[in-house]
Each structure stands twice: as C-alpha cells, then as structure tokens.
Design a protein that fits this description.
By secondary structure, this protein is an alpha+beta fold. It is built from two helices and three strands. A hairpin with a 5-residue loop joins strand 1 and strand 2.
C-alpha cells in the first residue's frame, strides 16, 4: 500500500477587476488510484504581494497587474 499526496495549482483565473483567483488541488492517492481530492482557493488583488506564489501564478500576476491596472484598482476600492 503506497499513499501519496499531490498538490497542484490547477486553476488560475482573472476577473474583470483583474483580481487573480488561484485554486490548488490536493489529491490523495493509493497505488495510483485517487482516494480523495480537496481544494484550497485564494485571490490576489492588483498591488498585492505575490512573491511567494508559484512561477505560474507569478507569471499571470506580472502580466495582468500592470501599474495602470493597480492604479485603477486602488481608485475603485478606495
């Protein structure tokens, strides 16, 4: 019997306000067969620090969170 836990960023989405939504799938398998899967979700707003994120999430944030987008977002939420 071999149990394994795998964590994968399986979804990165951007909404109309340029907030990046990230979903991580946490899968438990036994001998290659999936026993369970759960999800952890979080969001990254324009201007928020994303240095601790995965390379994939960093790339999306860097492309979307331009200085202009950050300025507009701050103006909307102020």
């Amino acid at each position: 019997m071999s149990l394994a836990k795998t964590e994968t960023i399986d979804r990165v989405e951007v909404d109309k306000s340029n907030v990046v939504y990230v979903r991580k799938a946490i899968s438990i398998t036994e001998n290659g067969s999936q026993l369970s899967v759960s999800y952890h979700r979080w969001s990254i707003a324009p201007g928020q620090d994303y240095n601790n994120e995965s390379d994939r999430v960093k790339a999306v944030c860097a492309a979307v969170h331009t200085p202009e987008v950050i300025e507009q977002y701050v103006a909307l939420t102020a």
